[in-house]
Amino acid sequence: MTGNNKNRYNGTPNNEDTMAERITPRKENYSQWYVDIVIQAKLADYSPVKGCMVIRPRGYALWEKMQQTLDRMFKETGHQNAYFPLLIPESFIKREAEHIEGFSPELAIVTHAGGEKLEEPLVLRPTSETIIWSMYKKWIQSYRDLPLLINQWANVLRWEKRTRMFLRTTEFLWQEGHTAHSSEEEAREETLRMLEVYRDFAENYMAMPVLTGIKSESEKFAGAVNTYSLEAMMQDRKALQAGTSHFLGQNFAKAFDVTYQTAEGSIDHVWATSWGVSTRLIGALIMTHSDDKGLIIPPKLAPIEGVIIPIFKSSNKEEVLGYAREVLSAMKQEIRVEIDEDEQNSPGWKFSEWEMVGVPLRVEIGPRDMEARKVVLVRRDTGEKIPVAGEEVTRTAKALLDDIQQSLFERARKFREENYHRLDTYKDLRKLFESEGGFVEAHWCGDPDCEGKIKDDTKATIRVLLDRKPVDGAVCIACSKPASQVAVFSKAY
RNA sequence: CGGGCUGUAGCGCAGGGGCUAGCGCACUGCGUUCGGGACGCAGGGGUCGGUGGUUCGAAUCCACUCAGCCCGACCA
Questions:
Q1: A17 in any annotated domain
Q2: Coil, helix or strand for A389?
Q3: Are A139 and A272 part of one and the same domain?
Q4: Which residue is nearest to nucleotide B37 (CA to C1')?
Q5: Whole-complex ipTM
Q6: How distant is C1' of B30 from CA of A344, in Å?
Q7: A360 CA to B12 C1' distance (Å)
Q8: Distance CA A142, CA A484 (A)
Q9: To the nearest 10°, the Cα dihedral for A207, A212, A216, A218?
Q10: What is the pLDDT of residues A205-252, one digit of tens each?
């Protein structure tokens, strides 16, 4: 369990560094830091099955906050929820050539059930395009049935060789939207609309700046015509794909023979999109904001926005607690706040513990505060302590939460800007990825060979192609032929 | 899937053929503490990851296997 890491919590606090000694510092071992946050903040735990994880209540509460917000956004853009089966006939997956080629190495297949060998094996869904389109064939006859805008919240299974908590697990939770349209234009609009919904969510709720754009052929979804992606920069300067939105063209409509009668009376295949984000967003959230003291959750997604820590002795316990509870009931009206009345642990212990689990705002209330009818507010993001009068607590706390939300976004945005480079020479590109890394915006000719060469030489891949044409005379950073695309390269998760 | 490292109490570790397997933290009880991880006293907790072998005797040696971490290959 310890691996080759020698810096894990040894259970012995030392006076030099009393805070968060359960978490490996980022600069020592970034991967271990990430694992420590997940475990110590009680977001998830390992399961008995390889590559799977148990999402614990604190992690699941975070997912529920994400779900609530996204679900509202999907409904506001006209989508309805439905649920399709986990088990998919193997033959369905094989209907679309690229789709099966892309997914077959990752499939888990049920061959026996009820004590008998199945006539046709059943695939545990890696994604639901095939089973959904088999149903859409039944549901769509006329242009009057379109658009069909359905989303589902579900688990999916992909047999991954190398797994990491939240970032890549064998089973994960996600939502997948599947829409059918009567025109290419409308389907393309839908693809971009949902991409923007995701951007809105990432930036305004997760406080995570994202770059959006189209994927190169080699990186796109198996079965899509175009894949659009959101790419965020983690604190180790690597990119994380945070969500995708696909324009599927008529690929699945043709594979499943989904046609409709147009207003003019002709028969045509429908146009499709699919789009999804997963529990991977929790990993993205961790690696965007958290520090060596533990998790940091942006207020809008924090299951608990504030925690009150009363500081008392046995001699003044009742008075301090009484005042703290007054403050609690006042704050509760407008803020998701809890009080930690535990008497066994010292206040200092509680400070560290609540910092570890990422609560954005701490409210310290001790005897001195009580006498002055004040409290001390402490920001999780900066550690700044702000004394405030009792009757001002709720208003100030709300303002601080807003400010924390904004500051987290700004801090992440600034970090990304500082590590975003526009490069023109191959030498500079190699040098960058040999050293600190980051995002590199560069011109590309569009040839997969150049993309492959860059990957071989630097391990960086094209994260997205920007929606912007190269300036006149621009040349590919790899081969110096005329450029057709502006690409963003990065090492990625 | 390949290379490396690691599995002993909830966590972090020590012990490396021999009698009853230890330490720190955590946990339980009582008391004192309490503004950045407090302390005393008394307790509870172990099929030494699993299976099979070698041996008079295995946590310890061997084989296989499972799991985790790191590095690769692969990967919407």
A1: no
A2: strand
A3: yes
A4: A349
A5: 0.86
A6: 13
A7: 29
A8: 40
A9: 20
A10: 999 999 999 999 999 999 999 999 999 999 999 999 999 999 999 999
